Amino acid sequence: MTVIRAVVADDEPLVRAGVRAVLASDADIEIVAEADDGRQAIDLVQRHRPQVAVLDIRMPGTDGLCAAAEIRRTMPGTGVLMLTTFGEDDYILRALSGGASGFVLKSGPPEELIAAVKAVAEQAAYLSPRVAARVVAHLASTRAGEDQRVARQRVAALTDRERQVLALLGGGLSNRQIARRLGLVEGTVKAHVSAILAGLGAPNRAAAAVIAHQAGTHLPTSPDGDAPR
């Protein structure tokens, strides 16, 4: 596997050091730069062109939300993984619309952070199970969000194969992993994902994963980033 190059941004030095230590423990991940605010993170991503930017969702000045949107606009080859805490549901929803590919809790287990970075590097969506549960609960409690019934209706309108792909996508698998699981070529999976996004009215894979969680069709993700058989 090619080494995954990552930029880490968090305004709290201790948190940043912890993230660096966790990711550095995996031989497949290299931290190429660190930032303490969103503006610096954008500059470093444009300079180093990493596969993944790991961003704190709230930082002074240019926060993680603005940085994520700018990175996705100017560096679409870099996936964005957001670090969040409980109680930041509104921020997570805004980050979803801004193109973030993954969300993990700062208090989560180290192996989850590693799995999330690897999933995002593979252009997959990764939602920490606890983050997904809170987002789904938040959506269900607001008029603007899709409730469980509507999510299930949208998923039911997909083809059987598209629902299979959605379940794996919601579990954090990349196109390559889905293709291997279902015995398809990667290009076919990519076409299915495009049809799924259109059918669900989802702007990106992470948003589709949220709908999969709402509808109860996702598969849980294991620490190595692959869904259980």
TrEMBL record:
The modification 4-aspartylphosphate is found at D56. Residues 5-121 form the Response regulatory domain. Residues 151-216 form the HTH luxR-type domain. Gene3D superfamilies: 3.40.50.2300. GO terms for biological process: phosphorelay signal transduction system; regulation of DNA-templated transcription. PROSITE patterns: HTH_LUXR_2, RESPONSE_REGULATORY. The keyword Phosphoprotein applies. GO terms for molecular function: DNA binding. Keywords: DNA-binding, Phosphoprotein, Transcription, Transcription regulation. The keyword Cell wall biogenesis/degradation does not apply. This is LuxR family two component transcriptional regulator.
